[in-house]
Amino acid sequence: MSANSAISVQGLTKDFRVGIRGLKLRAVDNLCLEIPRGQVFGLLGPNGCGKSTTLKIILGLVAPTSGKISILGYPSATSSARQRTGFLPEAPYFHKFLTGRELVRYCARLSGVAPSQLDSAVEEALALASMSEAGNRTIATYSKGMLQRIGFAQAIVHDPELVILDEPTAGVDPVGSAAIGKMIHSMRDKGKTVVLCSHLLGQVEQVCDRIAIMDRGRLVLEGRVDEVLARRDKHVITVEHLTPAAQAAAEAALQAQGAHVTSITHPRRSLEDLFRELVTGSRDA
Amino acid sequence: MLKSMKPSLLRIFWLARLTFLEAVRQRFFAFLIVLGAAMVLSSFAFRFLDFGHGELKFIADFGFGGLFFFGSILALVMTAQLLFAEIDNRTALTLLAKPVSRTEFLLGKFAGIWIVLGLFVFVLSTLLGVMLWGRWQELVILAEQTAKVAPQFSLEGVFSHALLQWFRLGVVTSMVLLISTIARTFLFAVVVGAMTIVAGQLQWLAQEALFKPAELNPFSHALLWLASRLLPNLQQFNIGDALALDPSAVATGAVSAAILSGGFYLIAYLFLASLTFQRREI
Questions:
Q1: Contact present, B263 and B173 (Cβ < 8 Å)
Q2: CB atoms within 10 A of CB A215
Q3: d(CA B155, CA B150)
Q4: CB contact (8 A) between residue B101 and residue A79
């Protein structure tokens, strides 16, 4: 285990027993993973690949069949490890009769925030999640995006070193999704480690420093985003004011040097970028 | 030691507070408290059906019966429902990802439910106590006018019984909590919990049968011995009419003995529930 690791997973295997005959279903298969501190780490994979099970095991909510996990040097599932960890579950559901502010205050108390720091910690977390104004409304009145943001606030209210977000943008519109992306960036800027589990590959690409891809319980790829996505055998040159004559000259010059031009197209912006340009304000901000 | 336990006790307090707030908001609680109160109040209207016993005894039996019956339903359903709601709605995920141990989580749930049951018992016992005291005053005046012996009544006895019932419901809650940590579905927890409460009410039969070992085969003897050890004798808490109407008939130390025995089972069930809940996948 590296001293620089926020999370160290060694030989993690999880089998579930299903049916009356107790047939074994392997959800995670000998997973080894080192998540460095101070980075945004994306855990990707199709449904049922073992991502959520892995996160639950890391948090001590599910017992592993075998393997060792440590969080910030502490064995996972211990109080010391969880004291330093914040967690936003997938599709979070909170007690609806509480107001957002009451929920965050309650979570702060459970996480051991000192009474003298309680007010400032709650207000800071609400501000970071852009929920200060809506904090006095009951959770029953919140939209999906607001639920995710209040979930984010309760996860970070005790100033954890590690934040684990399970599908933080599931069911959230692109504006809300971008707001969550900003929150993740602000956590990284504060030196926190963020582990993000998501299906929105575009967002993962934008916010993550490193990614790991799981399939059928196994790790199939792990590395820096720019390294794993770069195609070393191909290049992109972006040119402005390209006339047909200039294009022909450029192609001839490249071919003379042994290069082969495979395509010339106009660069596209993503639909998400276009949507965010057109829809500037969040409905529930 | 208390200083080192303070953070843990505080977490249990906050969990209990949330459980209490969640429980008292439930329509089921309001429904049962109204139903229980209606039963206590209706005892006054039906007191002419006293079957030859005293009027006060009829009102007391009717009221204590309502307290026992609706209190048991409340303890059974609310305990199973609140635990399964936390797991099914995944609010438990958020809470248990915090530095909250599973034992603290269960103790917080138990304490919150027990406080709600205390409120239920207090409201119904106060109502019953007021009714019994009011009727007793009338009967005393009537007895003086007709030169008859006035019936006995102890308001303190009503509240001693309320304390016993609260303890009894605590034992039921811990028992249902243990079953709920093992059960996979709410329905299973409620059905098995109800059967266990009935078995607890009949536990004294097992104790009596064990006094006559010659009449039992070894298997029945072993089964009854096990049942009489694993289940509490819930009947020992039902001495309300004696406490309220004839305190001299209650054996010395009966209340303390019931509380001690109940306390033993309560702690044992909570301990076992904590052990089984450790391995539960949330």
A1: no
A2: 14
A3: 16
A4: yes
pLDDT by position in tens, chain B (length 282): 667 788 899 999 999 999 999 999 989 999 999 999 998 888 877 776 665 557 788 888 888 888 989 999 999 999 999 999 999 888 898 999 999 999 999 999 999 999 999 999 999 999 999 988 888 888 888 888 887 777 888 888 888 889 999 999 999 999 999 999 999 999 999 999 999 999 998 888 888 877 777 777 888 888 888 888 899 988 888 877 777 777 777 777 888 888 999 999 999 999 999 999 998 887
Note whether ipTM > 0.85 here.
Answer: no
**CA distances, A124 to each of A65, B10, B154 (Å):** 39, 23, 57
Q: Does B94 touch chain A (CB under 8 A)?
A: yes
The CATH architecture one would assign to domain A5-231 is 3-Layer(aba) Sandwich (3.40)
Q: Give me the residue spans of the domains in chain A.
A: 5-231
Q: Do A87 and B100 touch (CB under 8 A)?
A: no
Of B25, B90, B95, the CB nearest to A110: B95
Q: Which of A84, A43, A93 is nearest to A204 (CA)?
A: A43
* Residue-number span of the structural domain to which B71 is assigned: 2-278
* Total structural domains within chain B: 1
